[in-house]
Specification:
2 domains, single chain, binds CO-5-methoxybenzimidazolylcobamide, Methyltransferase, Methionine Synthase (B12-binding Domains), Chain A, domain 1, 5-stranded parallel β-sheet, Rossmann fold, alpha/beta
Length: 211
């Protein structure tokens, strides 16, 4: 079993090497990458989020925890991104303008790569114009947008509208995700799909491609 408490202590203290060691140790003990992610890294980061919300900790602490989370994710990346199939389908993905959160998006990328997709990562704080430019350059079949803030959720609608206005909406399927989102919101802004987590994002992308 993944030692949730150890992960929590190491991650919340920003101990990158310790998080790496715990991740490797769990793998060596036969835990799956998915379990380590869920019960180790994500569980610990959720606790950091709760403390941040209640004002027990501040942004610097969250940042060092995020850095430690990335260190653990780097150990899991080769496993999660290891694909046995190659669909050659391209997925373009980015965190919406005004939003700097990228841990969840990076996980979605790892899972998609593991699912055999070629992923083009536009990074964080991505304006609609950059999505449009990248669609024209890379010609993806699917575009994914991530948002973690209630304030940036609205920017997703702006991005979808801009893609429509540029005459590119019929070329791509759009999937959105991030903690504050719901299936209902995704429908309201005109997205084709919504995924609550990284694993289901792969299923949603696959289902959009057969539509
Ligand atoms: Co921020 N932050 N943060 N933060 N932060 C949240 C999101 C918050 C919920 C914390 C809280 O109050 N409890 C809160 C948002 C409140 C709200 O809007 N309702 C918040 C806030 C307020 C802020 C600031 C405004 C704080 C401030 O400045 N006063 C600020 C905003 C900066 C900005 O973006 N402009 C800010 C800053 C930061 C840091 C930079 C310090 C850091 C980000 C570092 C980084 O990402 N590199 C940070 C962090 C780490 C968090 C929390 C603690 C953790 C987020 C995370 O990485 N979770 C978060 C609290 C929380 O969520 N518990 C919080 C782990 C990750 C695996 O989950 O990102 O949900 P998640 O991704 C999931 C799914 O959502 C889904 O799959 C992923 C994997 O399963 N998913 C998709 C995500 N994208 C998807 C896309 C898809 C499909 C699925 O398709 C395209």
């Amino acid at each position: 079993m993944v030692n949730k408490e150890k992960f929590h202590i190491a991650l919340s203290q920003g101990k990158m090497n310790e998080v790496k060691e715990l991740t490797q140790e769990a793998l060596d003990n036969g835990e799956t990458a998915e379990m380590i992610l869920k019960d180790g890294l994500i569980h610990a980061m959720d606790q950091v989020g709760s403390k941040f919300k209640s004002g027990e900790i501040y942004i610097p602490e969250v940042l060092i925890a995020a850095r430690a989370m990335h260190a653990g994710m780097a150990i899991l990346k080769p496993i999660l991104s290891k694909s046995t199939t190659s669909s050659q389908e391209k997925v373009l993905i980015g965190t919406v303008k005004g939003d700097l959160h990228d841990i969840g998006k990076n996980l979605v990328i790892m899972m998609l790569e593991g699912g055999g997709f070629e992923v083009i990562d536009l990074g964080i704080d991505v304006p609609a114009s950059k999505f449009i430019e990248a669609i024209q350059t890379h010609q993806p079949r699917v575009v994914g947008i991530s948002a973690l803030l209630t304030t940036t959720m609205r920017e997703m609608k702006t991005t979808l509208e801009a893609i429509e206005k540029a005459g590119l909406r019929n070329q791509v399927k759009m999937i959105v995700g991030g903690t504050p989102l719901t299936e209902k919101f995704a429908g309201e802004i005109g997205a084709d799909g919504y995924a609550p987590d990284a694993a289901s994002a792969v299923d949603v992308v696959r289902s959009l491609l057969v539509q």
